[in-house]
Design a protein that fits this description.
The protein is mostly beta strands. It has one helix and eleven strands; from the N terminus they run βββαββββββββ. Strand 4 and strand 5 form a beta hairpin.
Length: about 130
């Protein structure tokens, strides 16, 4: 199973970016059973949860720091998870990682430690 994140880049404050994460090596049926998440790590800081989406109902969790600005979604037909990022500010500058939880939990996994499949990351830089 491979996760490939795309869409990062340089954007000015107030701008938008859409990140994509394509998951390969699994069937659509298997992908639909994955919980999926976006995480980020800024220089000198620990990795933090940005947003996650559950495997079944599509229920989402969004961190307070990005609530109202970022939206996570998934397309099970395309084995892809998205992160729409609006109203970006310099504090959003980080490497963004997508991740998948390949086994089922009784709750929606929110922390990075609960995810076992990771992509390589894509850099988002927001200039002031």
């Amino acid at each position: 199973v491979q996760l490939q994140a795309y869409g990062g880049g340089l954007v000015q404050t107030g701008g938008s970016l859409r990140l994509f994460c394509a998951v390969s090596g699994v069937s659509g049926g298997t992908f639909s059973r994955y919980s999926l998440g976006w995480f980020r790590q800024a220089p000198g800081k620990e990795r933090e949860t940005v947003a996650v989406i559950s495997r079944a109902s599509g229920r989402t969790y969004v961190a307070d720091s990005v609530k109202g600005r970022f939206t996570i979604s998934r397309d099970n037909a395309k084995n892809t998870v998205y992160l729409q990022m609006n109203s970006l500010n310099p504090e959003d500058t980080a490497v963004y990682y997508c991740a998948a939880r390949s086994t089922i939990l009784s709750h929606m996994p929110v922390t990075a430690e609960e995810y076992d499949l990771w992509g390589q990351g894509t850099l988002v830089t927001v200039s002031s």
